[in-house]
Design brief:
about 180 residues; mainly alpha; two-stranded antiparallel sheet; about 45% helix
Amino acid sequence: MIACEVQARESTELAAQQLKRAFLSEQIARNLQPLVMHSDNGAPMKGATMLVTMQNLCVVPSFSRLRVSNDNAYAESLFRTAKYCPNWPEKPFASLEEARMWVQQFTRWFNDEHRHSRLKYVTPNQRHRGEAPTILARRHALYQEARSRHPERWSSKTRNWELEPVVRLNPERNEPRLESKAAA
């Protein structure tokens, strides 16, 4: 999750500004292969300002299917993680600033501490910084060593610690797939 903000209102201008800030913070240059941004069908994401911003940044828009709220498994996983994280607030936020602080803390925790099962239990930032292969190679070696010392504890192979190089959003059979590098 590279761009997350809480605003007092919803607007296409604020969404476009956030996308620009994300590009700057991640130092994303124009790619030969366009990036794909998946979002809901809300007005801020489909507004002219946002669409022009995406076009200028060479981002291909991808929208949820109408009347289907759960077609982005990664977004749904993020929402569930937020709702069940250890510091989920028990009461509504008292102010906009309190909500912003919570989201900022959650984003840091999500990216730097929470180990994701789909990422083979590395954090999104470890994957993003390219540290995941080294971490997973060490885990694989540790499992192999444990298996060689105590083969009776293993009924088959050890856990697969290979990380998928590409993450696909809603891959359809026999259709081209939208691809993006995983960064969570």
